[in-house]
Amino acid sequence: MNINNYSKPQLNILIILRILIGWHFLYEGVLKVYNPEWTAKGFLLSSQGIFRPLFTWMAGDGQIGFIDSANIVILMFVGIALIAGILERPAALSGFVLLMLYYLAHPAFPGLEQGPTEGNYWIVNKNLIEGFTLLALYYFPTSAAFGLRRIFTGDKKLANT
Fold this sequence. Notes:
Transmembrane segments: 12-30, 64-84, 91-109, 129-148
Distance between the termini: 7 Å
Number of strands: 0
Organism: Fulvivirga sedimenti
Strand content: under 5%
Order of helices and strands: HHHHHHH
Protein name: DoxX family membrane protein
Number of domains: 1
Keywords: Membrane, Transmembrane, Transmembrane helix
Number of helices: 7
């Protein structure tokens, strides 16, 4: 796919969307770095649904340090990569996987408590929406038009999709 296949408004909207989601991920990662008391343990222990045993195991004393660090690293990697426009596709895929884990830990299914959310959801919540938006960015990358990839490589063709 070539960026010339996008109209100017399509390209601009995708670039803005990429940067906004990148900002959200980076901000969440930075907040966790500067809060020494932050841990995913409570989120994981309050999980519901069929994957609860997995998330409870992840919250165990032997795993939680790694899980917390991995969460921060992935958030910051995704954020920096999307904002900068480099490694955009691996970042989008990593962000998608992370958000799907968040979703599966607290699915918005009928009969389950909503858990730590900012609203009331039924099947679809913000993690699902942002996750699939990242999947769209994976399939419609824009870093060849605006980002470090363009500066470093001069590449005006997008990665194979």
